[in-house]
Design a protein that fits this description.
The protein is 46% helix and 6% strand. It has 508 residues and is mostly helical. Strands 4-2-1-5-6 form a 5-stranded parallel beta sheet, with helices on both faces. The longest helix is centred in the middle third of the chain and has 25 residues. The chain is globular. It binds flavin-adenine dinucleotide, ligand DLZ and iron/sulfur cluster (SF4).
Length: 508
């Protein structure tokens, strides 16, 4: 029986059982299509990386003896749509069975389900054999209760036997060492060397350009730094484990103008395209704890991101789609200012984080959450616009992981289904965790006046404006107590200052 198997651009899992042995009856298909390049404006490096990694994967399959149809973006036979291309191949090659791996994105899942239901040949959707949970596992775990990551994480630690002692208790006696992980970085320990491989992808970039595909950010096509195959992904992972993991915990929240990543791993693109599996990453980190005597806070903190957060947000996504696309708890409607696409703002923290994102398609978690996302929420930017920006700009942005992080964790647009309180702060937090404020046009200490840091008045104005929705949140008790003690005239000044800032968003 002649079989066709579709591989999507984020399904580059060479360890999948599909590839155990070559089969003359099986034809694989991979396609670079405008349907996928155009659903949002992606970062140039993201499109290049996906095409380069897809091409490398197809070459590898071919050299292992598999048969692959690969449609490039400039191929004259390319209909630029999954359905059109698949129908053409099924007819042309007299295909008798069609299979695809479960898509991670709701949109693609829906369109492939509809496509398959119209087929007259048998068809199947199989697992990607990547995640540690089923799509509905977290939802079954929580039932009607509140979604608390920490509860789910402990369950995952036990279920997957990670960092447990002989008595099945957490090693070191605690489940979570986050309190030890909040240090400022000031050149000590010295910044890690970027050992990622470099590629020249000018050919792919020229192809993308010749088809007028709209992108944002710097392509960096001739000195490209993202991994495009499993070997390079493993090399980056090993380099992180050997040289960076030891400091991951301590400097996880730190930000610095001279450093892109500090001690973060840069493995999210490899994980999300499935070139690496979460199980192997967790196993290697745990092994480093045992063999290298790394601090437990570092290893536990890193493992929690993958075993806990990553699987948790995936479960949240499948439970809350499609409703999550349109939630807007605070009814925020303000558009993003144009400087989100060029970084031209006087706010040093925003300038730095946005420029870094445009230059490298990367910002680490705290830059995404506590600088850019924090500002977006305080300003009242429209959640759907914030989501589209995040989905486009980051190398690792795929909707199943980006949307819960942006809409839920960062913008609180789901009213607190994912996060227990809004992640907002005044300049004090940014000044504590970075060197951004030192060189800023604005004063991080001032709340009112032309040179006052916008975060400061926006922060108090946010809590004043949303008192009805937030005042009862037990985690915000102290904030509302402080607000209650504030003089009415001060509150009025804050509202006026915040209104000025919001009306002047383009020129901040
Ligand atoms: P490290 O800090 O080294 O962490 C290791 C790994 O843990 C990451 O590679 C990632 O796989 C996982 N991880 C860490 N935090 C999270 C999290 N909150 N949710 C899920 N996995 C996590 N991550 C994405 O992979 N894709 C996204 O599109 C994405 N969008 C985000 C949007 C916002 C607003 C925020 C606040 C966070 C977002 N994150 C996203 C989570 C996190 O910022 C990135 O996973 C991380 O910065 C990737 O860099 P790294 O590989 O160096 O991660
Ligand atoms: C992000 C992306 C881009 C830019 N291009 C393609 C493509 O041409 N072909 C493809 O199969 N996948 C691409 N992707 C990744 C898909 O958007 C991803 O497979 C879906 O989001 C499903 O998770
Ligand atoms: Fe950002 Fe305010 Fe600090 Fe400037 S003073 S860097 S705007 S937090």
């Amino acid at each position: 029986m002649k079989k066709l198997r579709l591989i999507l651009g984020d399904q580059l899992n060479s360890q999948h059982t599909w590839f155990n042995q070559a089969d003359a009856d099986v034809l694989y298909v991979m396609m670079e299509i405008k349907q996928e390049t155009d659903y949002v404006v992606h970062h140039a490096q993201k499109v290049i990386a996906i095409f380069a990694a897809m091409r490398a994967f197809s070459d590898r399959l071919k050299s292992d003896g598999h048969q692959v149809i690969y449609l490039t973006i400039s191929d004259s036979n390319n209909g630029h749509d999954f359905e059109q291309n698949l129908n053409q191949i099924i007819t042309q090659h007299q295909i008798e069975h069609f299979a695809y791996q479960a898509p991670d994105e709701y949109r693609v899942d829906g369109l492939l389900k509809i496509f398959a239901s119209k087929l007259t040949i048998p068809h199947a959707m199989v697992s990607t054999e990547h995640f540690l949970t089923e799509r509905d596992e977290a939802s079954r775990f929580f039932g009607n209760g509140n979604w608390l990551m920490e509860r789910f994480y402990r369950h995952m630690r036990i279920k997957h036997q990670v960092l447990l002692d002989d008595k099945k208790k957490p090693v070191g006696g605690q489940w979570n060492y986050d309190k030890e992980n909040r240090q400022y970085w000031n050149h000590q320990p010295s910044a890690p060397v970027d050992n990622r491989p470099t590629h020249d992808h000018s050919d792919i970039w020229n192809e993308i350009n010749s088809l007028n595909i709209t992108t944002m950010g710097q392509p960096n096509e001739s000195a490209f730094r993202w991994p495009i195959n499993r070997e390079e992904s493993l090399q980056i992972l090993d380099d992180f484990i050997d040289h960076k993991l030891v400091y991951f915990g301590a400097y996880q929240d730190a930000m610095h103008t001279e450093e892109l990543r500090l001690f973060h791993s840069l493995i999210s693109f490899s994980l999300n395209t499935k070139m690496l599996s979460p199980a192997e990453v967790i196993a290697k980190a745990e092994q480093a704890y045992i063999e290298k005597d790394y601090p437990l806070a570092a290893v536990e903190g890193f493992i929690r991101q993958i075993l806990g957060w990553r699987e948790f947000v995936r479960g949240f996504y499948w439970t809350n789609m499609p409703a999550m696309q349109t939630v807007n708890y605070f009814n925020h409607q303000q558009p993003l200012p144009s400087w989100f696409w060029n970084g031209e703002t006087k706010m040093n923290c925003m300038k730095h984080c946005i420029r870094q994102s445009l230059d490298h398609a990367y910002a680490h978690h705290i830059q995404r959450l506590m600088v850019i996302g924090n500002f977006a929420l305080l300003m009242g930017f429209k959640p759907s616009e914030v989501h589209a920006w995040y989905l486009g700009i980051y190398i690792d942005a795929f909707e199943w992981v980006e949307m819960p992080n942006t809409i839920g964790m960062s913008q609180y647009a789901d009213g607190g289904l994912l996060a227990t309180k809004p992640y907002v702060s005044s300049a004090a937090y940014i000044n504590k965790m970075s060197n951004y404020c030192g060189d800023c046009t604005y004063s991080h200490k001032a709340r009112i006046g032309e040179n006052a840091c916008p975060f400061n008045s926006l922060y108090w104005d946010f809590f004043q404006r949303h008192q009805t929705q937030l005042a009862k949140n037990p985690r915000l008790g102290i904030v509302y107590m402080q607000l209650q003690k504030m003089r009415e005239s001060d509150k009025k000044d804050i509202s006026q200052q915040a209104a000025l800032i919001k009306n002047n968003a383009e020129n901040l």
